[in-house]
Design brief:
Elements lengths: L7 E7 L17 E2 L2 E2 H10 L6 E6 L4 H10 L5 E6 L4 H15 L7 E6 L7 H14 L1 E7 L5 E2 L9 E2 L6 E10 H13 L9 H7 L6 E3 L10 H13 L2 H5 L4
Parallel strand pairs: 1-4, 1-6, 4-5, 7-11
Antiparallel strand pairs: 2-3, 6-10, 7-10, 8-9
Helix pairs in contact: 3-5
């Protein structure tokens, strides 16, 4: 844990049902790879990072008891609160931020990293640089340069209305990090304004409300496990021992 009084925390949202994965074992965050659920792989990164003081987890209400069992079984001592998700990913994040905000001693100086429970291929470098960026710039959005051309379509993918300059485009990943006070207040404002759930992610929402966003270098392997090929990729990394070559760390 950090030695100073400024706390660094993580909100991990894993409240989805995994409809696009269609896995017979239920929500993708609880799919086991080598005997360990994907969510646990993700949580262990924050558990083992010396700059993270506490972790707040959001899961399906029906899986809270199960998640508490996983936390105990895997000695995830930094997990302080496990709360129920909402009807949308945005609502789930808000629920997690609310639990952290109500629990934190100093919301003005607390840094919060918001991360997908099904994005287990991260490392200490990303976590540490996210914290440092928020301390210096007020925000941190993990990102990589776009490696394919991005087109705009206004008719649901039937025709192309515009082609972007790939050299100016970036793919936003996670974690996305901010001061807890700032991001909680903006999420609350989006709820008050009736627009919660209309944003792509927290970066989109913060940008909408006029906050500057500072990018932190991510890496291409940091995928969100969404469809079967993503799961196959993660399984390969774990089972082949190639995880270190992608992240620089053991798993």
């Amino acid at each position: 844990m950090t030695e100073n009084t400024n706390k660094n925390i993580a909100v991990i949202f894993a409240g989805g049902v995994g409809s696009r994965m269609g896995h017979p074992d239920g929500p993708k965050q609880f799919i086991e790879v080598n005997g360990k659920p994907i969510l646990v792989y993700t949580l262990e990164h924050f558990e083992n990072n010396q700059n993270i003081d506490a972790v707040y987890v959001v899961v399906l209400e029906s899986h809270i008891t199960h998640t508490k069992g996983l936390v105990n079984a895997h000695n995830l001592s930094k997990v302080k609160v496990i709360t129920a998700g909402g009807d949308t990913a945005h609502q789930s994040i808000y629920n997690g931020l609310k639990s952290a905000y109500e629990d934190a001693d100093n919301n003005e100086d607390t840094v919060v990293l918001i991360h997908d429970g099904v994005r287990p291929i991260i490392n200490n470098k990303i976590i540490n640089e996210s914290v440092a960026s928020v301390r210096k710039h007020g925000s941190s959005i993990s990102s990589i340069p776009a490696f394919e051309t991005i087109a705009e379509s206004l008719d649901e993918g039937r025709t192309i209305d515009g082609v972007t300059n790939r050299n100016l485009m970036y793919v936003l990943q996670a974690p996305q990090a901010f001061k807890l006070h700032d991001v909680y207040k903006v999420n609350f404002q989006s709820l008050e304004d009736g627009v919660m759930g209309t944003f792509i992610d927290q970066a989109h929402m913060m940008n909408h409300y006029g906050h500057d966003l500072h990018m932190t270098e991510g890496f291409r392997g940091n995928v969100k496990i969404t469809v079967p090929i993503d799961l196959a990729y993660f399984k390969f990394l774990v089972e082949s021992g190639e995880f270190r070559s992608v992240t620089g760390e053991d798993i």
